[in-house]
């Protein structure tokens, strides 16, 4: 097996990244310096990503959510994040349109990437978020909280009652429901 640290990954040219993201040249250069200082090889494997991400949530267990987040950033699904994967995802999350952000969020929840979100997928993500936030939340959360949260969301989103949420249902529900939009903004801060 090839060690990631032995491989030097060359990022796309600056001009291409300027065209593909909503970052300025200075912002891209600064992001690249930070990325290279954390990841000298130019690639981040999932374990390293989990270690870095877990530092932001010392009060809980962020490993499962970090796994789902890694999958969402790993656009080509090759098991490693390069600078392009990272910066393109970050651009959507920080500067994307509402539609782009919701598409990214849908992709995060669609764990098996089949184009639908099931109640089970939504519950897995929600449990991982609750685990990451830890037991130190006020008021203290009950163990049933993720399932109750999912039940409420899923009923709103599964508009035709077929047991799955399509992107169209997800988009329409999120854009029309102030509660969902505000809760999505809470989770935006998690990233």
From TrEMBL:
Spell out the molecular function terms from Gene Ontology: calcium ion binding; DNA-binding transcription repressor activity, RNA polymerase II-specific; potassium channel regulator activity; RNA polymerase II cis-regulatory region sequence-specific DNA binding
Sorted alphabetically, which PROSITE patterns does this protein's record hold? EF_HAND_1, EF_HAND_2
Q: Does the keyword Phosphoprotein apply?
A: no
Residue ranges that the Swiss-Prot or TrEMBL entry lists as coiled coil: none
Q: Which GO terms describe its biological process?
A: regulation of potassium ion transmembrane transport
Q: Does the keyword Repeat apply?
A: yes
Q: Which Pfam families match?
A: EF-hand_5, EF-hand_7
InterPro entries under this entry?
EF-hand-dom_pair (IPR011992), EF_Hand_1_Ca_BS (IPR018247), EF_hand_dom (IPR002048), Recoverin (IPR028846)
Tell me the Gene3D superfamilies matching this sequence: EF-hand
List, alphabetically, the GO terms of the cellular component aspect. nucleus; voltage-gated potassium channel complex
Keyword annotations for this protein, in alphabetical order, are:
Calcium, Lipoprotein, Metal-binding, Myristate, Repeat
Annotated EF-hand domain ranges read 61-96, 97-132, 145-180
Which domain of life, per UniProt? Eukaryota
Similarity comment: family membership: Belongs to the recoverin family.
The protein in question is named CSEN protein
